[in-house]
């Protein structure tokens, strides 16, 4: 699929809140992090516009515990009035909310999921991800450490170390068919440990864990191996743009993002 293909992808934009108060939201005086201003507007606006502007996206589902926050805010009310946007209520966990949404809403595949704090998401990132993820049952976007540090050496990320590099998530996911459901269910089991790489790897079996620790597995090979375990095609999309893994997670991130947008 390319950017000229018909709008067939369902985009899911995660705009929920954690169980505890988010420091960015508290500091900004807003009820949830997606409403925190970045470069003069709520951070959710930029990824939402990027998704809706992409010709391959047919509809946008905003998944959040509190749709009313966005409808009541003048700066985000446009989302509630756009006919291609619909709000769905989520729960506490991303994976559990996604599984519930897939069951009750009967969303058409493929699904592309990203987050409201992915402020720098743009057409080029979506073009690359859609092109490389198409045909897979599940795909995940990552950025290799050298790609990021070549442009933003001051940026701090969480890295997973493999033989083919150090990788950080870019918060873009692809679910190409219903075969992805068992992997999402596994994600649900380890979701609380998503920042602890070894626990995530150990959920895929001791071979994956030992292989990662000894650096005898590439991440590309590991993801493909996980796919075979579940009887599906799983794919890593190594993003070309360093900005793909810079999200608005900390005050320093917002300063960096605003400087990038100002350029």
Automatic annotation (TrEMBL):
GO MF assignments: nucleotidyltransferase activity
SUPFAM superfamilies named in the record: Nucleotide-diphospho-sugar transferases
Entry keyword set: Magnesium
MobA-like NTP transferase domain mapped to chain residues: 32-147
Pfam families, sorted: NTP_transf_3 (PF12804)
Protein name: MobA-like NTP transferase domain-containing protein
Organism (species): Sphingobium yanoikuyae ATCC 51230
Lineage of the species this protein comes from: Bacteria, Pseudomonadati, Pseudomonadota, Alphaproteobacteria, Sphingomonadales
């Amino acid at each position: 699929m390319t950017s000229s293909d018909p709008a067939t992808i369902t985009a899911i934009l995660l705009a929920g809140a954690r169980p505890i108060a988010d420091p960015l939201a508290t500091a900004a005086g807003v009820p949830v992090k997606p409403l925190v201003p970045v470069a003069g507007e709520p951070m959710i606006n930029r990824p939402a516009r990027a998704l809706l502007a992409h010709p391959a996206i047919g509809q946008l589902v905003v998944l959040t515990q509190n749709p009313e926050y966005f409808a009541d805010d003048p700066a985000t009310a446009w989302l509630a009035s756009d006919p291609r946007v619909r709000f769905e209520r989520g729960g506490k966990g991303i994976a559990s909310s996604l599984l519930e949404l897939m069951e009750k809403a009967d969303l058409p595949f493929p699904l592309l999921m990203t987050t409201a704090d992915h402020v720098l998401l743009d057409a080029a990132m979506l073009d690359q991800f859609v092109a490389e993820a198409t045909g897979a049952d599940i795909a995940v976007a990552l950025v290799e450490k050298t790609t990021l540090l070549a442009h933003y050496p001051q940026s701090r990320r969480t890295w997973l170390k493999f033989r083919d590099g150090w990788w950080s998530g870019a918060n873009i996911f692809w679910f190409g068919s219903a075969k992805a459901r068992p992997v999402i269910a596994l994600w649900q089991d380890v979701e609380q440990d998503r920042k602890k790489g070894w626990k995530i790897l150990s959920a895929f079996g001791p071979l994956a864990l030992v292989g990662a620790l000894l650096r005898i597995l590439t991440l590309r090979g590991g993801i493909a191996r996980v796919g075979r375990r579940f009887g599906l095609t799983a794919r890593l999309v190594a993003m070309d743009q360093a900005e793909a893994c810079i999200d608005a997670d900390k005050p320093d991130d917002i300063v960096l993002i605003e400087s990038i947008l100002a350029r």
